[in-house]
Design brief:
With 381 residues, the chain is α/β, with parallel strands linked by helices. The chain has helices at residues 39-48, 63-69, 102-108, 110-116, 134-143, 198-209, 218-228, 248-259, and strands at 5-10, 31-32, 36-37, 54-57, 84-87, 120-125, 128-130, 148-154, 164-168, 174-179, 188-197, 233-237, 242-244, 285-286, 291-293, 296-297, 302-303, 306-308, 311-312, 317-318, 323-325, 328-329, 334-335, 340-342, 344-346, 351-352, 357-359, 366-368, 373-374.
């Protein structure tokens, strides 16, 4: 098969900063926005950009992620030839089993990529919330006759030291890369989105593997090698909504922003849908004692309490007299009577029994893990 561009979604991250929310699942499989998982955004962007062959590279706790992606049907990626393919680590002839970094994960999947004989490879992170037309980025890459194009996002100067920063000339060519600089020269932060000319990247990876085997990450190893060899490396500036939900605080904040119907992400745009694999559930039901204000309530929910500025995912039950405020509640959660939940994230399948409380304070977000139980006479925290 011959394809112009192949997508590679790196979805094997542990997401340790999300604490108990990623003890059982990979970060890209973490629920978001009531009916989605984080990886849905990268996959939907591929589908909407006309990229129909996508490899999904998994590693850490892949069971739920593999089941969610499946054959790619929700994203229109269930094709007879190609489509979505789950790529897991395997033992190779050189004895390597686990992916040691982003670039190493691509090296380990050279045989898969070569099946498509692509001119270009689009490398994505599977754990960001955003909408992006990759076709526009590819056109930019071609116009610049680039060997590598890096998606960059202007961030505030205060935030710049947290990122890999690209310093460019007047033509947007990258002339210097600084990893988390104390005194950044620009505010163009890497988004972890790359378009490579595949033959050139393949040569770099194979040459390095035959020598030092130290080309493990794109940010720390590949981009500096390209710059040292005077490759044509360009920055493609993205100025719309983009969120790295790698911490409890950022995940909570992104969900609270998502409630706003005028949110910059514009989830209701029928020309650029975000697709997902969702369960079949009965319609939501708000009882006569239930009250919902400025919230998102998905299918299967039963509300007898009060929900304010919150997101309830599939099949959440809120008992009489309970209050859920400024919180994100994942699927299959049961909330008993007279429960108080505020400024919190509640993991899938959790149980909060009668009288329980999950309340965040000041800048701290309260978190209940998957299938965790608190409250009630016999389930005290």
């Amino acid at each position: 098969m011959k394809t112009e561009i192949l997508g590679m979604v790196l979805a094997g991250g542990q997401g340790s900063r999300l604490g108990k929310l990623t003890k059982q699942i990979a970060k890209p499989a973490v629920p978001f926005g009531g009916k989605y998982r984080i990886i849905d955004f990268a996959l939907s962007n591929c589908a909407n950009s006309g990229i129909t062959n996508v490899g999904v590279v998994t590693q850490y706790q892949p069971l739920i992620l593999n089941e969610h992606v499946g054959d790619g049907a929700p994203w229109g990626l269930n094709r007879h030839n190609g489509g979505a393919t789950i790529l897991q680590p395997y033992s190779s002839v050189d004895g390597e089993k686990w992916f040691k970094g982003t670039a190493h994960a691509i090296y380990q999947n050279i045989d898969y990529i070569d099946q498509y004989n692509p001119d270009y490879v689009l490398v994505l992170s599977g754990d960001h919330i955003y909408k992006m037309d990759y076709e526009k980025m590819l056109n930019f890459h071609k116009e610049k006759a680039a060997s590598l194009t890096v998606g960059v996002l202007p961030v505030s100067w205060d935030e710049a030291p947290r990122f890999g920063i690209m310093n460019t000339d007047l033509t947007n060519r990258i002339i210097e890369f600084d990893e988390k600089p104390a005194k950044p020269k620009s505010n163009l932060a890497s988004m972890g989105i790359y378009i490579f000319n595949w033959p050139r990247l393949k040569q770099y990876l194979q040459d390095n593997q035959s020598k030092t085997r130290n080309m493990l990450d794109f940010g720390g190893d590949v981009i500096p090698a390209y710059l040292d060899n005077s490759e044509q490396v360009f920055a493609y500036a993205f100025e719309d909504y983009w969120k790295d939900v790698g911490t409890i605080e950022s995940l909570w904040e992104a969900n609270m922003e998502f409630i706003n119907p005028d949110h910059d992400l514009n989830i209701r745009d029928t020309n650029w849908r975000i697709y997902s694999r969702t369960p079949d559930c009965p319609p939501q039901f708000i009882s006569k004692t239930g009250k919902v204000t400025n919230s998102m309530i998905t299918d299967g929910c039963y509300v007898s309490g009060e929900v304010e500025h919150s997101i309830l995912s599939h099949n959440v039950r809120v008992g009489k007299g309970s209050v859920v405020k400024d919180s994100f509640v994942m699927a299959d959660v049961v909330i008993g009577e007279n429960v108080h939940i505020e400024k919190a994230i509640i993991g899938e399948g959790a149980r909060i029994y009668d009288g329980g409380q999950v309340i965040g304070k000041d800048k701290d977000i309260a978190v209940l893990g998957y299938n965790e139980e608190i409250g009630g006479l016999t389930h005290e925290e």
